[in-house]
Amino acid sequence: MNEKNSIKLEYEILQNDFTRAGEASSNIKKILKQLGIEAKIVRKVAIATYEAEMNIVIHSYGGIIKVIITEQYIDIYAIDKGPGIKDIELAMKEGYSTAPNHIRELGFGAGMGLPNMKRCSDEFNIESTPNGKTEVYMRIYISK
Amino acid sequence: MEEYFHSVVLDKDRCNGCTNCMRRCPTEAIRVRDKKAIIIKERCIDCGECIRVCPYHAQQTQLDTLDKLKKYKYKIAISPMTMYGQFNLDKDMNKVFKGIKMLGFDEVFDEGYAADIITLIIRENLKNNQQPKPLISSLCPAVLRLIQIRFPSLIDNIIRIESPMELAARLARKNAMERYGLKSDEIGIFYITQCPAKVTSIKNPIGIKNSHVDGAISIKQIYGDIVKNSNTVEKIEAFRTASTYGIDWARAGGQSKSIGVDNYIAVDGIDNVIKVLEEIELGKLNNIEYFEGLACVGGCVGGPLCVENPFIAKSRIRRLAEKRNDEIKVSREYAIELYDSGFACWTEKIQSKGAMKLDENIVEAIKKIEEIKKLTSLLPGLDCGSCGAPSCRALAEDIVRGYSKIEDCIFKD
């Protein structure tokens, strides 16, 4: 990959900051539109980054979203520090959620975050250490 | 040329380059160059915000005059739902319609009647609609153009049913042809309008090839004459054909209420619409059934070509509609027939418009984004507008697109 022909974006995501949540995904979306990327792909990236953003806001102590855009694909890294995910297989199940009640009352925590992220991406990987780092990696191809 | 026809135009003599419109434009379509505003045609959605805020009335709508009526043998005026909000509730609307007719029309068609029919059609359509949710109302042409330009991924959510104006025009033309044996080109259909975006839709329609409307005259242009004429009416004819369900479409939320969806969001004001479309695009509102987005505050009663204050007009429509002392006069069967035959539906695909795109070639576009990032960090971030662009970031984009130079910033030496 030619390093010159890529865009790197990085956003800091704060724990429990619901008012700013969505800012990173909106920003990324805008750039993709300026690049002239197909609407369907833009929507996939938007949903994937938004869910990742919300996961960091709700479940972690804070983290970052890193996006690398090349002419062939978009890579998204969501990295946070926090309690980590005990059982990844279970967390990937639709409807499974560890979000506490006060979060569910806000309309979040329906247990669709990770499954949605996986559904939107062409490549997906998640690694997590209990009481440590959780890293989600997603790749979405612009053209196949 | 046809592709970018816009009803919103600038009167250069009146413009003094004050930047009010430029700051207000929701699609960053306005720049100030050499002390005059210019509109970037590809980005304009004809929402009319600039018309509203211009202190010098330099932003205007291209409209027809009553002179154009002479071209036609049989002239029909379509009176909009918003007309019901322009007069005190004790005013007899039949007198208002007669006052419109006296301007030289052979017939006045109540747009609210078409809204009645579309209400029935949407109720039917919702029963087995397979489109992605939330469904997006097709009423507001400014919102439709906004989606084409800024939210193309939501085009598939737009409900493919005609707006009341267009259905009214089709019905009026068909009736006149059948009743009087007229040829189509002998009939002139004029929309009395509150809305510059509707005017654009006549020359450059969305979802269909050609509009059945031949001209547009604003409420403002003829309001005084309507008042004068209506006060002289003695013999009252029954013009009003709309029910309170159709009339309710004139205010934000009225459409959703008439259709009878419970799980809807009605949003008025173009900036608010943008915020909610952002949320829909992020997948946050998939559980909502119907989205009614209207560019003007209050809904169509807030249209820049209305005379009455939007809040007063809205309150009148509300009081009229909340009575619900009538039923839609059209039969459900007739509405379904218009729907099944395609008479009230769109025929053309809605195209996305890449007006925000920086370059056709993605590699070049990527380079330009990097340049914009660099330039933005060099600019002061005051968004003062002195350079003639609405924000520092917009100036950076303009520089990269080759329309401006960094020296345009008055804080750069």
Automatic annotation (TrEMBL), chain B:
Ranges for domain 4Fe-4S ferredoxin-type: 6-35, 36-64
GO terms assigned for molecular function: 4 iron, 4 sulfur cluster binding; metal ion binding
Parts forming coiled coils: none
InterPro entries membership: 4Fe-4S_dom, 4Fe4S_Fe-S-bd, 4Fe4S_Fe_S_CS, 4Fe4S_Ferredoxin_RnfB, Fe_hydrogenase, Fe_hydrogenase_lsu_C
Extent of the signal sequence: none
Domain 4Fe-4S, residue spans: 364-413
Keywords assigned by UniProt, alphabetized: 4Fe-4S, Iron, Iron-sulfur, Metal-binding
PROSITE patterns: 4FE4S, 4FE4S_FER_1, 4FE4S_FER_2
Pfam families the record matches: Fe_hyd_lg_C, Fer4_10, FeS
Descriptive protein name: Periplasmic [FeFe] hydrogenase large subunit
Native source species: Caloranaerobacter ferrireducens
